[in-house]
């Protein structure tokens, strides 16, 4: 969820410098090594996908139930934290769904939507068909990229707004699926707006989504209908007391925590220094972030392979469970002077500090 009131403030000198980076020639040696060394890692392991997703969801919902039933504040807070972390991990598989080839993990998309996507009101159609544009070579970092904002070049107040909007996203999802979706069935103009502006997990406020076509349109309809029925049921049960207000608010708070944590991770997934010009693959890589070991906390705030986000932009076909091995192979084989190492960062705090400093300078 973003706001169209965000405005850009550009420093001409910084923009010129970043434009030079944007047209940087591709490091063909690095790109060739990345492809050659990881060729055998492209096949997803279905057992890992199922065990990880189901285990994370089970832990998350169990912890949420404990938080709701807890009689002490301490147990409630600990259980809620576990629920946020586990459901965040389970929800992060929406990213993997956009890269899995059809049939590579049979039934996984349906199961994820039934267990995670619809209950959390983030069905996979919100990301499928959107995220692929973020990986398009000529779209990345431009106005056509739904997942890019030049945050490093924007006013400092946009950073807290960016995070606060995410914390309020569960309310927005309830309204989107429980109110706007049903009403849009009777109003074509409203339907057009819902599809174009409120049907994608995007951060670019000027991005407008196209109407779905073919099989994807049918998948969209099924997922949206299920999410709408669930949202209407939640609103109705909370309003009539079938679900106690305390339980409803705890559930919404956990969902808010999941969205907030994901937005924090998004805040440091890239350096956000591109000024809208098309970028080479190497420049896109350098604008993206790896937070590899020995750092340990990224396993919590950047799960399901997201700690290797820059590497993922080099090798979007490598499944999340193989990215660690891909990184080890590249660091072992590439010379220490390789550009590959320039996207490796130490942790969350230095990245946030760098982004905040860039924003203040801009």
Describe the structure.
- By secondary structure, the protein is mainly α.
- The protein has one domain.
- Helix 9 crosses helix 11.
- The radius of gyration is 21 Å and the shape is globular.
- The N terminus is likely disordered.
Question: Share of helix among residues?
Answer: 55-70%
Number of domains: 1
What about the largest sheet?
A: none
Class per helix and strand makeup: mainly alpha
Mean pLDDT: 91
What is the C-alpha radius of gyration, as a whole number of Å?
Answer: 21 Å
SSE sequence, one letter per element:
HHHHHHHHHHHHHHHHH
Q: What is the overall shape?
A: globular
Low-confidence stretches: 1-23
Keywords: Membrane, Transmembrane, Transmembrane helix
GO biological process, one term: lipid biosynthetic process
GO molecular function, one term: oxidoreductase activity, acting on paired donors, with oxidation of a pair of donors resulting in the reduction of molecular oxygen to two molecules of water
Transmembrane segments: 58-88, 108-127, 157-183, 220-239
Task: Show the helix and strand layout.
Elements (H helix, E strand, L loop, with lengths): L11 H11 L5 H10 L8 H24 L3 H19 L1 H5 L10 H10 L13 H5 L22 H10 L1 H16 L3 H10 L16 H27 L4 H23 L13 H6 L11 H4 L7 H6 L8 H11 L14 H14 L1
Short summary:
The chain has 362 residues and is mainly α. Helices cover 58% and strands 0% of the residues. It has one domain (12-361).
Keywords:
single chain, 362 residues, mainly alpha, 17 helices, 58% helix, 0% strand, globular, membrane
